[in-house]
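2024-03-11 09:14:02 DEBUG pipeline.ingest accepted 1 chain
2024-03-11 09:14:02 DEBUG pipeline.ingest length=94
2024-03-11 09:14:03 DEBUG pipeline.predict start
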Amino acid sequence: MSISGKAVTTAAISVVAAQLLPAASGIPALLRRVWPTAAGTTSAGSFALTFDDGPHPQGTPAILKTLSTWNCTATIFLIAEQVLKYPELVGEII
């Protein structure tokens, strides 16, 4: 009987996951100690806003206006192609 490469890979991943998962369960507690504001560990009533694939001439100004109105901050992930198309919007984001 022959074992396929895919079966071996799946088995190997399963073994690695079984070894790492117990260790990974302690990561959130360690992260809260080392970096209290990371990974959803901020104070009650706080949350993170992220926006992807910008800037865009319609969406970005509306998002920035809303953030300003509510005195909020957000993380905006930019696409290089969009940055080259709309550099003036990048200046507004920063």
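2024-03-11 09:14:41 DEBUG pipeline.report Residues 5 and 11 are 10 Å apart (CA to CA).
2024-03-11 09:14:41 DEBUG pipeline.predict end
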